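Repro case for the chain-ordering regression, as requested:
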Amino acid sequence: GAVVSQHPSRVICKSGTSVKIECRSLDFQATTMFWYRQFPKQSLMLMATSNEGSKATYEQGVEKDKFLINHASLTLSTLTVTSAHPEDSSFYICSAPRSSDIDTQYFGPGTRLTVL
Amino acid sequence: RKEVEQDPGPFNVPEGATVAFNCTYSNSASQSFFWYRQDCRKEPKLLMSVYSSGNEDGRFTAQLNRASQYISLLIRDSKLSDSATYLCVAPLHTGTASKLTFGTGTRLQVTL
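-- result from build under test --
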C-alpha cells in the first residue's frame, strides 16, 4: 500500500489565490521530504528540500516566497503556492526517504494544479 | 551538459520484442543509479537499482558502465503493460537523504 500520501490529488483555482498541498509519510517518520514539479512532457524537477524543524532549502531558480514549505512534524510537509498564476499549473509531487535507506524514496501520488 | 540525459523516444516496439534504453550521466562521483517507471499522470515508481555489478529482475536487466558514464535498461519479451516512460535517476547524497536528479525519460509504447 501507499507509504506517502498527498492531498489534494487535484485542484483548480483562480489566478491570485493560494493553494496548499500536503504530503504525509504514513508509516514512517521523515526528517527530510522533497518537492518536485513536472510540466507536461518534461521530467521531474526538484524544487526544494523540506527539513523537519528547520528552513527548507530551495533549488536555484525556485522562489522561496512563492513556494512556501513547512515541515512541522516528522510525518507532514506542506507546500503552499502563493498567489498562483496560470504558469504555476503543473504536477507537484513529494517524496520521502526512510532513514534506514536514504537512497530509496517513496513518492506521493502527486497533485495536479490548474490555475485559471 | 545535463546531469542525466536520455533519448526521449518514443520507442514503438511489438509485443515480445527486446528493447534497450541508455542514459548518460555527467557526475563521475555518482555511485549508484535508479530506473523509475512513470505512467501517464502518475507518480514515478522504482523499477530497479543499478550498481557496479548490474542488476537483473525477471525480464529487466540494468547495467552500469562507469568508463563511458552510461546506464542501460534492457527489457526482454515486452508486454503491453510495459508501456510507460522510463526515468533514469542519479542520486546525490546529502547526509540524511539523497537528492534525485531525473532524466527527461524515455517513452516506450508496446503494441500488438
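Ordering looks correct now. The longest strand of chain B covers residues 84-93.
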